[in-house]
Every structure is written in structure tokens, then in C-alpha cells.
Amino acid sequence: MKKTILLIHTGGTISMAMSDEGAVMPNKENPLMKESSKLDALATIIEMEAFNLPSPHITQKEMLKLRNLIIKKVAEEKIDGVVITHGTDTLEETAYFLELTTDLSIPIVLTGAMRSSNELGADGVYNLVEAVRVAVDEEARKKGVLVAMNDEVHLAINTTKTSTSSVNTFQSPQYGPIGLITKSRILFHHAPIRRQYVDIDGLSKRVAMLKVYAGMEVDLLDVVLACKYDGVVLEGLGQGNVPPSVVKGIESLIERGIPVILVSRCFNGIAEGVYGYDGGGKMLEDLGAIFATGINGQKARLKLLIGLNKVGAPIDLKEFFM
Questions:
Q1: Percentage above 90 pLDDT, the chain
Q2: Cα–Cα distance between 23 and 65 in angstroms, integer?
Q3: Cα 190 from Cα 188, distance rounded (Å)
Q4: What one-character DSSP code corresponds to residue 310?
Q5: Which of 48, 55, 227, 282 keeps 20 to 30 A from 79, CA to CA?
């Protein structure tokens, strides 16, 4: 008996076409909507378009809409898996948002394309077929939100876009893919140890993110305070260090109850409070800064945003980011 897959389109390169002038642009009609017949042998497809946006246009509001749509559809109908087509620029952020805000055992698989629908070697339909194959695979259950592209399956928590143009852009630094997609099977070779879930019903809080650099000045943190952000993520140097010039700004934010989350701007390794000098991670940790374990800046920003918007009792952010 075939499984039922909810296929949701959101736009992105996978649904675009290149003009005669060489500009890749959205189509008035999503060309993928004509390709669902290629999926009939794999599953019963319930297809819909949530929106048709280039991924840089997607905000946390669209992510929340997508999350609510999935929960509603799964509650109303027997759905065995969800596949989402998405632009690659922010695909990892939407995937991680869904990872933290859905608590489903069925697979949720995101996919996209690096070449538009009418380019030579277009990879969209191929990736879509692979994503549906992953979603119907029984071993994909209870593994969290997944990203399937270019014959690989990655966890939403680990994967990131690493190339501006390569079809092999999605990688999981340090961890590697969770599975491989062959002509005949999906080969899963490891699974997540734990997952986190946060119940939210809105996104009223705001979180900023800043990349730390040599000679950074404190007035950037003053702007975070002046603009009344509810939290900030800093992509720190090395293991999570900052120039001494910004320490006072960090201290000022923490004293006012504004959480400061530290990650590393390096994409390998884990940020930790190690160095005790002025601006070192240990000093910042002693001031009350929180280190995010094993995620990049854009995901730490979403995690803090979701944590601050949790329904019910406030979340313990230090434990949340461990």
C-alpha cells in the first residue's frame, strides 16, 4: 500500500526559470506542479503551494505559517510524510525552525535546487524525487527534520549551505550526512541522539545577530539596545572570544536582561568558555553570556527566537543551548 505524502511548495530556484537575458526569476506558475506525475509510483501525493517566494524573502513569519500548515494537515488527514520544496539560501533556517517547533514522528524532508527549471543539468525534479523517496522510507521516521539533495540526507540541525553555486552545496561540517541515496535504496547510517521541541503560537520577540571581527566597536551593541531587541547572537572569534572593546556592551545587555548567545564564526569545532583574558570566552561566560553548542549563528538566532517565544513558563536558556 502506497504511503501518502504532503508535498508543499514554497518557491526558490527549484521553481524558477532563466530568462533569455540570463536572469533567474520566479515563474507565474510553479513548473514543479506539472511534475507530480513522476511521483505517482512512489506515493499518493497531496500537493499544495504555501507561497512562491525566493528564499531571501522568507522570514520567520513564513516559517511559522509553514509549521502551522503542516500541523493542521497532519491533524486532518492521514499523512505519512511531508516534503517541502524551498529556495536554498535560507533552506537550512526553515528546516531548523521546523525541527524545533514540530513534534512529529513522520519524516519532514526539505529539498531544493541549485539550477533553475530550464537550465542545462537542472537538478530540481531529481532532488524532488529523492526527497519523496526519503519521506516514504520507514527508516526516515523519528529522525527529525531532514534535508535531501544531491544523493545525500542531512539533519536540519547540522547542515548548512557551503557553496554559492555547487549542486553539492549542503554539507554537515564535522558530522557528515545521516544517509545516502542510491538508485535502489536509502542507506541511513546514524541517527540523532536527542531532539528538542518548543511549543510556540507567535513570534513577537526579536533577535539580532552580529559577526564579530578584529577591531569591532561597541556602538553596534548599543544599537541592539537602542532598537529594543530581545536578544542577540554573536558569531565570536575562535572558540567564542571577542575584542575587549565590546565587552562593556555585552555586559550592559546582560545587566538589562537581554540574553547574549555566543557561537563561533568557524564552521568546525564548538564554542566554549575557555579563555580568561579580557574578551575571552570564559570571561564572557562568567558575565552571563550563553554558549550555543554545535550550531551556527543563523540557527542560534532562530533557537533563541523560538526559546523567547515559548508558550507557558519561560525556558531555561542555558540548558536549552547546551
A1: 88
A2: 29
A3: 6
A4: B
A5: 55
Candidate from 65-79, 113-127, 129-143, 149-163 with smallest mean pLDDT: 113-127
- Which residue out of 88, 94, 111, 169 is catalytically annotated? 88
Candidate from 24-38, 83-97, 202-216, 233-247 with smallest mean pLDDT: 24-38
Question: pLDDT (tens digit, 9 = 90+) per residue, 248-301?
Answer: 999 999 999 999 999 999 989 999 999 999 999 999 999 999 999 999 999 999
Residues 115-130 have pLDDT tens digits of 988 888 889 999 999 9
Distance CA 204, CA 277 (A): 37
Q: 245 is written with which cell numbers?
A: 572593546
Q: What share of the chain is helix, strand, coil (3-state, %, to 5)?
A: 30, 20, 50
Q: Which of 237, 93, 87 is nearest to 159 (CA)?
A: 93
Q: 1-39 as b/e, with b when 16 or more CB fall inside 10 Å?
A: eebebbbbbbbbbbbbbbeeeeeeebbeebbbeeeeeeb
Beta bridge partners of 161: 170
Number of H helices and E strands in the chain, helices first, is 8, 16
Model confidence at 20: pLDDT above 90: no
Active-site annotation holds for 10? no
**Interatomic CA distance for residues 284 and 276, integer angstroms:** 8
**What SS3 class is residue 238?**
coil
Grid cell for residue 131: 526527497
N residues, the chain? 322
Between CA 33 and CA 196 the distance in angstroms is 33
13 noted as active-site residue:
yes
DSSP string of 183-231, one letter each residue: SS-EEE----S------BS-----EEEEE--TT--THHHHHHHHTT-SE
241-260 CB burial, b ≥16 within 10 A, e <16: bbbeebbebbbbbbeeebbb
3-state secondary structure of 124: helix
